[in-house]
């Protein structure tokens, strides 16, 4: 099972805005995000994804293509320039990125499938999930 990571969609107003940003910054079929440190568990991330967090909820994922040193002592996280919608689950904000085990990753939504939970306020959704109602 591949290891994934989570990251805040900083500055994105919505999932559609994030999707547009990924398409805008795509070069040669990939988007490069700068990070200070190479993950220690990088070898486990082959086939993994970067899960995006927006408004305290995971909204989608971008498959990870790999990692690369950028020549300034930092590294690039190379991802596909697409956002695959996932079932929204609450997730606290954090700085940088965090590991996400496959067992904890939300499932993808199918074509044209919508998640009604996306319309709920994040706090209410979190409370309902803690009670096991959604």
Helix and strand arrangement:
Elements: E1 4-8, H1 15-24, E2 31-35, E3 49-54, E4 57-69, E5 75-79, E6 84-85, E7 97-100, H2 122-130
Parallel strand pairs: 1-3
Antiparallel strand pairs: 1-7, 2-5, 3-4, 4-5, 4-6
Would you mind describing this structure in some detail?
With 134 residues, this protein is α+β, with helices and mostly antiparallel strands. It has one domain. The protein is 14% helix and 30% strand. Strands 1, 2, 3, 4, 5, 6 and 7 form a seven-stranded mixed β-sheet that branches. The longest helix is centred in the N-terminal third of the chain and has 10 residues, at 15-24. The chain is globular. The two termini are 26 Å apart. It comes from Sphingorhabdus profundilacus. InterPro entries: UCP032025. Pfam families: DUF1489.
Summarize the structure.
The protein is an alpha+beta fold and 134 residues long. It has one domain (4-130).
Helix content: 10-25%
Q: What's the SSE pattern?
A: EHEEEEEEH
Number of strand elements: 7
Q: What's the helix count?
A: 2
Quickly count the domains: 1
CA-CA gap between termini: 26 Å
> What structural class do you assign from the helix and strand content?
alpha+beta
Describe the sheet with the most strands: 7 strands, mixed
Low-confidence segments, ≥5 residues, pLDDT <50?
Answer: none
- General shape: globular
Mean pLDDT rating = 87
Radius of gyration: 15 Å
Instruction: Indicate the proportion of strand residues.
Output: 25-35%
């Amino acid at each position: 099972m591949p290891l994934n990571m989570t990251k805040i969609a900083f500055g994105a107003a919505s999932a559609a805005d994030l999707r547009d940003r990924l398409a805008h910054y795509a070069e040669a079929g990939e988007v490069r995000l700068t990070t200070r440190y190479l993950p220690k568990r990088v070898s486990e991330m082959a086939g993994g994804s970067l899960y995006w967090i927006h408004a305290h909820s995971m909204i989608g994922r971008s498959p990870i293509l790999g990692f690369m040193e950028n020549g300034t002592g930092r590294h690039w996280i190379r991802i596909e320039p697409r956002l695959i919608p996932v079932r929204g689950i609450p997730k606290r904000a954090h700085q940088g990125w965090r590991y996400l085990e496959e067992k904890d990753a939300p499932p993808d939504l199918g074509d044209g499938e919508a998640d009604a939970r996306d319309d709920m306020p994040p706090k209410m959704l979190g409370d309902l999930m803690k009670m096991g109602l959604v």
